Every structure is written in C-alpha cells, then in structure tokens.
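Appendix B. Raw example, untouched.
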Amino acid sequence: MRRTVVASLIVLLVLSAGCSQLTDDPNAQETTSTVLEGTATPDSSGVTTTETATATASPTTVATETATKTPTPTEASTPTQTKTATQTTTLTDTPTATPTQTDRSRPDDMYNLTIVAANGGESHYRVYVDQVRMELGPEADRENAKYPDAIYNDDPYYIQGYVGDGGVDSYHTGRYSGYSPDEIPHYSFRNNGNATLQVYVNGNQTRTVAPGEGVEEDFGPSAPPKGNNTITVEAADDGASNYGLWSKNESYNPIYVEYGANPYQTAKHPDFSNRYPDDEIPSAAGFVADGGADSYSSDHRLTKVTNNGTATLKIYQNDELWATLQPGEVVSKGDQ
C-alpha cells in the first residue's frame, strides 16, 4: 500500500514538472527522475525508478493572416486633348493684274493680247498691228473711263490705252493670213510712261516693255495735236447728236481725231475722219451727248458744221467759240 502511494505521488510530481517544462523549452525532450523528499529511502533493490517520457508539445504553427498590402491604384494619365488647329483661310488679295490662261470671250480666229502694269507706275501705250482686225477685250476701259482704251482701224493701225497701279487691259487681234494658232504675231509697242508693261499672248508672257521704250513721239492726253488748229465739239445740254465737220477740201486736208474722241470700233457711236471728203462727205464725223466733248485738229480752218440730233452743240476752234448750233442746224462760214 505504501509503495502504491509513493508511486502515485511520484507520477503526479513528474507530470507537474513536465507541464512546467513545456513553457521553458518546447523543443526539448528529457527523462526526469524525481525523489520525494522527507521519505525514507527505500532499499535500492526494491525501488523502481520510472522514467517518464515527457511529451514535448509540438509547436502549433498559427497561420497569421498577413494583411496583403493593397497596391495603391496608379493614377492613369489622362491624355490631354490636343486642340486641333483650325485651318484659317487667309484671304489673299489676288491681284487683278494676273491674266487668265484662257479667255472664253476670245473668238477662235483671234489672239488674246493682255497688257499688265507690273509695278505702281502708270503709262499710256500704243500697240501697232499691221492691218488686222482688232477688238476691245473684257478688261479694256470703255467710254466712261477717265482714260478710255481705243482702237484705231486706220493707217496706221494701232491700239491706244492706259494702264496703271497693277491694272490690266485686254484686246483681241486677228491673225495674219497663213498664220498658225500657235504663232505669235508681231506687235510693236510704245510705252509712254513710268510703268513696266508685261505682255501676254493667249495667256503666255511674251515680252516686257520698259518705261519709254519705243516712244518716238508723245501721245496721250498731254500729246500735242497733229494739226495746226484744234477743234472741239461739245454737247451743251443732255441731248444727243450726230455731227459733221468740213474743212478746206481742195486737196487732201484731213481732220485728225485727237485724244478724247471715240474712234472707230471703240465706241457704240464712233468718231472718225475721212481721207477723201467732198461736199457731201465730211472731213470728220462723230457723236456727242450729255455734256460730252470730242477733240480734233486740222491744218486748215473749219468751213461747215452740221447738227443732226437733239443736243445743242458748241463748236470751238483754237479754244474760241466758232459757232453754236441748235438741233438740226447747219452752219457754213465759207472757204477759210
């Protein structure tokens, strides 16, 4: 009985000591031999020493939930909207001096002649063409212009015009017999002014005429009259009249058409002179209306003037009033 009690106490002590060791070193496994103090030591032959294997608690691995670091969302780079460059249409002041390559108004059997003032100057000019048909083109200045462009279909045959400040004049001229459409006719130029003239034929530049080139005599509004006596026919009111002028006609005594008159093929009612006048055929004839005036000259003095229309005409010779003619009136002053 006593042995049983001692053995039980030993077991309890061993268990108690083992539990305390669990906290000291969980990885160590040892055998404990415990002797109860104050107890008579039994005979060594009768005492059984029990080796108690202390169960070492295996460490339990606790899975600690590690908080996964949530990546901070990267701020997406929002593309900056690029402003689309709006195409701005720049209005270019197209000079009217640039001739077109084609002229729809040009007849098939004629050339298109274009004259351009290439700088800021101004010039009165003449273009001589040998006995071919000539017409005003779409850019020519008509009767209401300060300096109208004109065609003189008489011997010599020429065009007379004015151009300035980059302006453009155009004409149509006929072809010589046997000329091909691509063959450029001969034009003789006179540039009476300070503008450089660029010449185009059917849209292609053919030459440049320098200021003063070809000028042998003055012409234009400042040119002296061809004859010794100047003649002016003026419509004194808003009427309109055809008129005839005569001078001494014993021989060829022409009345010259001067600058300011509207010559043949330029005006709706052209002014002209006759090479061989007689009693019935005037030396010169023309049309005037609405306060307008025509200019002539002659080496002889006037002998007769007729007024066929509704305008009152004032006739001046050498800037002096020669006569005033009412509508339908004829005035003769003999052979002077």
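End of appendix B.
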